[in-house]
Design a protein that fits this description.
CATH class of chain A: Alpha Beta
CATH architecture of the largest domain in chain B: Alpha-Beta Complex
CATH class of the largest domain in chain B: Alpha Beta
Distance between the termini of chain A: 9 Å
Structural class of chain A: alpha/beta
Oligomer: heterodimer
Number of strands of chain B: 43
CATH topology of chain A: Rossmann fold
CATH architecture of chain A: 3-Layer(aba) Sandwich
Number of domains of chain B: 4
Mean pLDDT of chain B: 90
Low-confidence stretches of chain B: 159-163, 457-462
Strand content of chain A: 15-25%
Distance between the termini of chain B: 42 Å
Strand order of the largest sheet of chain A: 2-1-3-4-11-10-9-6-7
Shape of chain B: globular
Strand content of chain B: 15-25%
Radius of gyration of chain A: 17 Å
CATH superfamily of chain A: Class I glutamine amidotransferase (GATase) domain
Shape of chain A: globular
Chain lengths: 254, 975
């Protein structure tokens, strides 16, 4: 089981993302995008392709856009190939924005991006912990997960989805995660439970096959129990909720 | 050359959120525009538009749809167009260019482009002016406001010609400066700069007459005239910013100066007393370093960026934070930045001070604009760089109206040994290549170092503003830390900060002997820079490396492979000579000794200042609960949650004690990160300053700062033997004897308390002239000086996760105050908000304090402490309410008072060295054993209800926690 964790041009969560994969049992490598473009064949050595969080290209021309265009120009076919095999792709935060800009999720109708990531309704960068739930999604990334407590940290985390597309996303169960409130009910857009104002409280989307997950919250930052706010009140567990996402990847290949 | 806007994409919805919120106006639209130096045919237009805009959230304006799209906004009446001034870094344009080049490859080769932001607004003219002032800074951007209809017509006629960078063609010929002139003429050079041929002046050198005379003597001895580059270089190198002349000067009877005697002296004394080896690198490097564990060193540095932030708050703050990140990169062989810290000392954002740098013109930026810009600058700098920013604070006082204080700090980590060699040791060897890497050089920040040593006045140059580009730095930093450092490919490294190449190369050359630089090799952002400008420019995101010739090719290749430039610009030599050439002409040739040590040493005298007594203010009669609400919602106590949530403190997955603590999210005094996956040791961080006590007693002020910064780490669970501190003195009018007296007193306290606590200083920085000289709205001349401010930053190692404390209590817990409460309300938050009583300022008794801290540490390790908060602003009253808010659990406080102290004095006195703790009932016996002979008071218990009760002999006063939380979480007016 090998994971390729992408880096370069302002991606900045590669170390902790790789660490999370390694702890659950993957072997992995951080690969600079320029090295991958130089030698795309190395993708064959990996079962998981992870785009971590960060600020690729400083969000110039929109979060995730410039890196998505770099991938589109240089690696698109290889990545499509990768996704059509029994392999997994995850994009976290900026990685999610990149996958959305590439149109790899939800990827329902056409090659072009169908969803946009826009600025949080609050108008501010939001670094805070949220609760999200999984609802009827068959993605291997989300198997046997009901609720997760994870941090978000973004300025552009609002999923903008045209109405008709939203209908088919729902019909196909492609919503990966949704923000919920302190009563474990959908946040209904209410801040701070839904930190960005995303329609239908969407925090993550998948493709139809479920092997690609684009999520705004950061599972790698909720990996150990001491990552969780006020962990001192509950020291019995070793891991935080983010661990489950990485374990699911391991189980998929086990 | 002119360029035409060709691609415009209008936001359907999204990007306006922050603008709409900021201006409370829903009718705002944003258009991204790009102008090209070449015409785009239809095919290229379509292709490029698709690359740089988003189909889903934006509409691309084309010749066909423009009328229709824009007329759908016909109820909008204004258009604000913002673009960068010629020569200012345009980061977006750089990215766009890269995307296009990558995608279109050879079919679209050479072109230039720029970006512009266009805002459509519905509103009154005065609102528009306000909005445009908020969104753009005239120092770096041009702002044009058009009526909407006119703009639409212009668009149809395609009249969007934009001037490109057009610097006058300059031909350089070596310029020699005649210093054999009158004293008056000489001092003009120092104050206004070197005279150009057209009689204009280059801008202040910050050199006093005496220094210029020393320079004149030096050149008359070597029998030639100095060049302009030599004078500029000496000005940079000798600037207060670089040489800290005041700290090293003889002051009264202190021959060695206050730095050597009190700061470095304290550390030397402590090392001698302690005999353990936890300090690794002290004062000489870009940051100070201590041992983290057996394999790793951590370093810490805190810088100020006050003057730049007064002129361009966003730009000043972002370059402040990414600048101090580079201090970490330049620590030893290069430490990885793992945490940012911040501290802002600002004027009241809700007040309109109306200050002018010149009579009736050149206004200071409004206080709220400065505050917002600074907060945003550090946000963008930290978040974009992937460095968590967990620790900080903000303090407000009217006396910061003329100059805000912006402290930016960074913590770094580095392996102790790299390929068997100590990583904190570095040495540029003779023959090593001088490699400049990162960003290019432009006119940014010219004269930054000399001018930050001067007071802010009408002659303060605007080109002193720097533009930050964190992504360029991030790319460079990744190559250095991940791909070069651990292979030992370079022999030395330092950052290009104040003074640019002249400082970085000048400093590094001390390791080898001297240097030869070929300035024409330095890559420029645009043509037209004079050699002296290249030499002293403070363009950001650059590091200088000393690379053995055999490794140079490899190093450059690795930088280039990651999209980072690296250029050979000279070499280090053995001879003690500083030599700079420009196209083979030698334009600088100085002895290294004269360059670094030739400046005239100051001889300072101090005198006892008149103490300004706090004005008596009648105490407002109000209930205790009312007073608590007033204090909780006052700007210096109210929660800074809005900053904590916009600063990414979770990146790198190291945050272990977060800025917001407890279920009720109280803004903590200290935070902690756990930097290594395979070691449970953590780093605790805190900081403290007490400018409010400065005028009353600068000695006690410094004592309080050290005590609080140290105490906060003890409270967080740090090992008292592994706490180090940093000093940042921000002073005012440091040429006046009474200010120097205050400085000497504060420095003396630094020695006394650091030695008493055995916590060494490892790094520090000072900024001595934080004064504003200008005019008020009536045209009357005013001088506003900051109160002398000493920020003490503390960094400590927490040995075990289980030692980390929390501030939330549990039902049944017993509450205690450790330490003594005295009537010390002078200059307190209480005296400012409620009223003044006859009182004293807090005085730190280090013996008592240490007893408390040692016992606390012991009790915490034994698991006796359930929760703890360091008591500071607002005293016990605020500490207990914060504990209640954080835990969402009620408390009962017993007001049985001793020592003739009144209720208000007991609850609101700001006596130092006190800790509020809660312990489980069954631990009381153990607690008493540990604290035998130590001062503590049982003050109540945790009830778990929803109220805080204050009980005295006569009555019970209740306040609801949810109400307290509301006051504590109020927005700061004006922000």
């Amino acid at each position: 089981m090998n994971v390729l964790v992408l880096s370069g041009y302002g991606i900045n969560c590669e170390n902790e993302t790789l660490h999370a994969f390694e702890v659950v049992g993957f072997k992995g490598k951080i690969v600079h995008i320029n090295d991958l473009i130089q030698n795309p064949k190395q993708l064959n050595n990996y079962q998981v392709f992870a785009i971590p969080g960060g600020f690729s290209y400083g969000d110039d021309t929109g979060s995730g856009n410039a890196m998505a265009k770099k991938i589109l120009t240089n690696l698109y076919d290889q990545l499509i190939d990768f996704s059509l095999k029994d392999k997994l792709i995850i994009g976290i935060c900026n990685g999610c924005q990149i996958l959305i800009n590439l149109g790899l999720v939800p990827s329902l109708n056409k090659k072009d991006p169908e969803v946009a990531m826009i600025e949080n309704k609050s108008g501010s960068y939001e670094c805070r912990w949220v609760d999200v739930k999984v609802n009827n999604n068959k993605s291997p990334w989300l198997k046997n997960i009901s609720i997760l407590n994870l941090p978000v940290a973004h300025q552009e985390g609002q999923f903008m989805i045209p109405i008709n597309l939203l209908k088919s996303i729902k019909a196909n169960n492609l919503i990966g995660l949704q923000y919920i409130n302190n009563h474990k009910k959908l946040a209904k857009g209410q801040f701070p439970f839904n930190p960005n104002g995303s329609k239908d409280d969407i925090a993550a989307l998948t493709n139809q096959n479920g092997n690609i997950l684009a999520m705004m919250p950061h599972p790698e930052r909720a990996f150990y129990h001491y990552h969780v706010p006020n962990w001192q009140n509950n020291t019995s567990k070793k891991f935080g909720d983010g661990y489950k996402i990485f374990m699911n990847a391991k189980k998929f290949f086990a | 050359m002119t360029n035409t806007i060709q691609i415009l994409s209008i936001e359907k919805t999204g990007k306006e959120s922050s603008l709409q919120k900021e201006h409370n106006n829903k009718s705002i639209k944003i258009i991204d525009g790009y102008f090209f130096s070449r015409n785009l045919d239809d095919q290229k237009f379509t292709k490029i538009s698709k690359l740089i805009s988003n189909d889903v959230s934006q509409t691309i304006l084309t010749k066909k749809n423009v009328k229709k799209v824009l007329s759908s906004y016909s109820n909008f009446n204004w258009v604000v167009e913002i673009k960068f001034l010629p020569g200012v870094t345009d980061n977006i344009a750089t990215t766009v260019k890269e995307i296009i080049k990558d995608n279109l490859k050879s079919s679209f080769k050479s072109f230039e482009l720029g970006s512009t932001k266009i805002i459509l607004i519905k509103g009154r003219k005065e609102d528009i002016t306000k909005i445009s002032k908020n969104e753009a800074n005239p120092l770096i951007q041009t702002i044009k406001i058009y009526p909407f209809k006119q703009y639409l017509n212009n668009f149809k006629k395609n009249q969007f010609k934009i001037e490109k960078v057009k610097l006058p063609k300059k031909k350089y010929s070596k310029k020699e400066i005649n210093l054999d002139i009158s004293d008056h003429q000489l001092s003009l050079i120092g104050k206004l700069g070197i005279e150009e041929n057209d009689k204009s002046r280059r801008g202040t050198l910050g050199l006093d007459l005496e220094s210029l005379k020393v320079i004149r003597n030096y050149f008359s001895t070597i029998k030639r005239k100095p060049t302009d580059v030599e004078i500029e270089t000496l000005a940079q190198t000798w600037s207060e910013h670089c040489k800290h002349k005041i700290f090293s000067a003889k002051i009264d009877d202190i021959q060695e100066g206050i730095f050597k005697k009190y700061i470095k002296g304290a550390t030397e004394k402590i090392i001698q007393l302690r005999k353990d080896n936890f300090c690794v690198s002290l004062f000489t490097d870009n940051a100070g370093g201590i041992e983290f564990n057996k394999d790793w060193i951590i370093c810490h540095k805190v810088e100020t960026h006050n003057t730049p932030s007064a002129l361009d708050p966003f730009g000043g703050a972002i370059t402040g934070i990414v600048g101090v990140n580079r201090d970490c990169l330049g620590f030893g062989k290069g430490a990885k930045p793992i945490a940012n810290t911040y501290a802002y000392y600002l004027a009241d954002p809700n007040k309109n001070y109306q200050l002018y740098r010149q009579k009736n013109k050149d206004p200071m930026l409004p206080a709220n604009f400065i505050a917002k810009g600074i907060i945003s600058g550090v946000r963008v700098g930290g978040n974009c760089s992937g460095i968590p920013t967990p620790q900080g604070n903000v303090y407000f006082d009217d006396r910061f109206a003329g100059k805000p204080l912006v402290f930016c700090g960074t913590v770094g980590i580095i392996p102790k040994k790299i390929k068997g060699k100590l990583s904190h040791k570095k040495k540029a060897n003779p023959g090593d290549i001088i490699l400049m890497t990162g960003g290019r050089v432009g006119k940014d920040g010219i004269h930054g170092a000399t001018f930050s040593s001067e007071e802010l006045d009408p002659n303060s140059p605007v080109s002193a503003v720097q533009i930050g580009d964190p992504i360029t730095q991030k790319k460079m930093s990744d190559v250095i830390i991940r791909e070069l450092r651990d292979e030992n490919l370079y022999s030395s490294i330092t950052d290009n900060g104040a003074g640019g190449l002249s400082s970085s190369i000048g400093e590094m050359a001390k390791e080898s002997g001297g240097f030869i630089v070929n300035l024409e090799k330095v890559p420029l952002k645009y043509n037209g820079l004079y050699p002296w400008e290249i030499w002293v420019s403070e363009s950001q995101e650059r590091m200088t490396l000393a690379v053995p010739p055999a490794n140079v090719k490899k190093v450059i290749k690795r930088f280039n492979a990651r999209g980072v430039e690296a250029t050979i610009i000279g070499k280090f030599i053995k001879k003690d000579k500083a030599i700079v050439k420009y196209n083979k002409t030698e334009i600088l040739n100085l002895d290294m000794e004269f360059l670094h040590e030739g400046y005239p040493k100051l001889n300072l005298k101090t005198s006892f200042p008149k103490i300004k007594k706090e004005k008596k203010k009648i105490i407002k009669k109000s209930s205790l609960i009312d007073k608590l609400h007033k204090l909780l919602s006052s700007p210096n106590i109210v929660s800074k949650e809005f900053i904590a949530t916009q600063y990414d403190h979770e990146v790198q997955a190291t945050s272990i004690i977060k800025p917001l603590q407890g279920e009720g999210r109280v803004f903590g005094n200290a935070t902690a990160i756990k930097p290594l996956f395979d070691d449970e040791k953590s780093i605790a961080l805190s900081q403290a300053a007490y400018p409010q006590y400065a005028e009353t007693n600068p000695y006690d002020m410094a004592g309080c700062s050290i005590d609080t910064a140290y105490k906060n780490l003890i409270v967080s669970g740090a090992n008292s033997k592994k706490i180090a501190i940093l000093d940042n003195f921000c002073w005012c009018s440091s040429d006046e004897p009474d200010r120097l007296y205050q400085l000497k007193e504060a420095a003396k306290a630094c020695y006394d308390y650091a030695v008493a606590y055995q916590t060494p200083f490892i790094s520090g920085k000072d900024s001595m002239f934080n004064d504003f000289k200008g005019f008020d709205k009536t045209g009357k001349s005013v001088k506003i000086s900051i109160p002398p401010t000493l920020l003490i930053s503390s960094i400590g190692v927490v040995d075990k996760i289980s030692h980390l404390t929390k501030m939330t209590s549990d039902d049944g817990d017993i509450l205690l105050v450790l330490g003594n409460t005295h009537n010390e309300l002078l200059d307190s938050v209480y005296s400012k908000i409620i009223g003044y009583e006859k009182s004293k300022n807090p005085v730190v008794n280090s013996k008592d304090a240490l007893r408390t801290y040692r016992n606390f540490e012991k009790a915490n390790k034994l698991g006796i402490i359930n929760s703890a908060i360091g008591i500071d602003l607002g005293g016990i009253g605020i500490a207990v309410t914060k504990m209640a808010i954080a835990s969402k659990k009620g408390l009962t406080i017993d007001l049985k008072l001793k020592n003739k102290i009144s209720v208000d004095q007991f609850l609101f006195s700001e006596s130092q060295s006190r800790i509020l703790v809660s312990i489980k009932k069954n631990k009381l016996a153990n607690f008493k054993k540990v604290f035998k002979g130590s001062d503590y008071t049982i003050i109540g218990k945790c009830t778990g209800s929803d109220v805080v009760k204050f009980k005295d002999n006569k009555k019970i006063i209740r306040g609801k926690i949810s109400d307290f939380a509301k006051s504590y979480k109020q927005n700061i007016k004006g922000l």
